[in-house]
Amino acid sequence: MSNQLKVLAVFLLLFISFFSIQSEEKFIPEFGDSIKFSKDSPQISLNQLKGKAVLLVFFQSWCPSCNKWSGKMFKKIETAHGDNPNVVLFAIKTDGGGTSGAEAYLKERKVNFKKWFIGTDKLGAYSQLFNTKKSLYGGVEVSPDGSYRKISDTSMAGRNFENIYGDQLKRILPEKKYIPELSGVVRNAEMSLFKLSLLECNKLSKNKKIRDEAKALKKDILEAASNKVKGLLIELNDDTQENRFISFMSLRSIAIELKGTASSKEAIKGLKIAKSAPFFKKELKAEKVYLSILSKASRMKRRKREEVLRATFPKFAEKYPDTYYGKLASRK
To answer: pLDDT digit of tens for each residue in the chain (332 aa)?
Structure first.
């Protein structure tokens, strides 16, 4: 995606939220380009986290009274969920300062960076899709199937996700104990960050003390990636699955990320078959048109761009009402 399209993506999030804070889309919108993660937090998409419970904590740092209790809030959430491989925690700052500002604020409150994805949301564009009152702190809980609900920050620590979601929660790696030195790799693998975790395994395998353990973990990751592809292929062919195109996009990401591996080849094979089905032809057509709208709008001046999008998006949503991008563009 070009820099112009990235800038436009931030605008589009604001544009959509201006008309309606809550979209008709049942599933969580993917992170837009307004979201940036710190250098120590791998870039990750919500599509990768199917099968996990996700907590998005949006926060600001300028309020003196909030700053007195925010550290306890983060630590309670971290203590409750930070070691659970089925739960993913995001701390996202919405009042500027960049990722360095987010890290500095959380470091001062003794937040364990290894248990959170830490980021920033430019202009609060993404958080505004959920935060109707524009409060300083807000939370969103994403279920394993990708649907979401707003949740108060005070109730996050008390959520028992095993009881709430049961078998919907899916482990990526085998349920066995790995040595502490591999905990970071295990965490990334559980987030379906396969390429990154494999690179980390290769690096750690140079350490003679943990070489065997690193190689064994690498084998587990490759097998996990293969199982992930198999699961996505099943979803892809299940016409009762409302979010099949999300599975399609996840497969497409794995095919690119793990190019040359058996998992990538299997994903490519499944994608090729899926593309011939009417359902995916329609979804791909909608995607192509949607991206074309972005491309054309990115070359316009701001006022003209707003006018065009104001007229185009409702028509697009009407033409592609049951597609992923049609729902994303729709508004009440």
So the answer is: 454 544 444 444 444 433 333 333 467 878 877 889 987 777 788 888 989 999 999 999 998 988 999 999 999 999 999 989 999 999 999 998 999 999 999 999 999 998 999 999 987 878 877 765 567 788 999 999 888 888 876 688 888 999 999 999 989 999 888 999 998 899 889 988 999 999 999 999 999 999 999 999 999 999 999 999 999 999 998 988 777 898 898 899 899 989 999 999 999 999 999 999 999 999 999 999 988 887 787 677 767 877 887 888 889 999 999 898 888 777 53
What are the residue boundaries of the structural domains of the chain, listed by start?
Answer: 1-24+286-332, 31-168, 180-274
- Token pair of 88 as six digits: 């993913």
pTM of the entire structure?
0.76
Hey, what CATH class is 31-168 in? alpha beta
Residues whose CB falls within 8 Å of the CB of residue 237, separated by 6 or more in sequence, listed in order: 274
Own/partner pairs, 289-296, CB within 8 angstroms, 24+ separation? 289/316, 289/320, 289/325, 290/316, 290/325, 290/328, 290/329, 294/5, 294/8, 294/9, 294/12, 295/5
* Exposed/middle/buried for residue 21 (C-beta within 10 Å: 0-12, 13-18, 19+): middle
